[in-house]
Amino acid sequence: MIKGWPAMALTVVAAIAIGAGLALTGGPGQARKERRDQQRADDLSTLAGLVECLAGTNRGQLPDRLAVTLQCDWQAALNDPYTGQPYRYEATGPRSYRLCAGFETPPPDRERFGPFMRDAEGCIGRLYVPVR
Asked: Residues with Cβ < 8 Å from 52, sequence gap 6 or more?
């Protein structure tokens, strides 16, 4: 019995280390949520390009709704690939708009990542600046 105690102690220490690591990182479930949210953020970035294109082909006016056109065929995903829900678009002024998604994780710290990160509602505010 005395010979086996170091192996048993090492097993217990390893189990505690693995448990602590999973608790700190959130484990594989958290990683999946983060990957899905990264896809949503990438989709919103592509949709911002679509909005810019649509406004550019409409004399600088923001679109009423998001739609792929012949001039603006951005291959943009209009729906969340995981839930099937449409991404939300809202013109908030003559040159400003928001794009929103249903994120699974809290937004990043605005102080660390800047004002153009998503807010608690899952929205990213943008400004349209016409190119002359």
From this structure: 128
Contacts of 96 by beta carbon, 8 Å cutoff, 6+ apart: 125, 126, 127, 128
Render 7-51 in DSSP notation, one character per residue. Answer: HHHHHHHHHHHHHHHHHHH-HHHHHHHHHHHHHHHHHHHHHHHHH
Report DSSP letters for 55-79, one per residue.
Answer: HHTTTTPPPSS----SS-------B
Phi and psi of 121, rounded to 5°? -90, 0
Strand partners, 86: 79
Q: Residues 64-77: pLDDT tens digits?
A: 999 999 999 878 89
The Cα diameter of the chain in Å comes to: 84
Tell me the C-alpha to C-alpha distance, in Å, between residue 48 and each of 23, 53, 70, 111, 113: 36, 9, 17, 23, 19
What whole-number distance in Å separates Cα of residue 44 and Cα of residue 65?
Answer: 14
> HSE-up of 43 (CA within 13 Å, CB side)?
26
Torsion sign (Cα): 19, 21, 22, 28: negative
Q: pTM surpassing 0.85? A: no
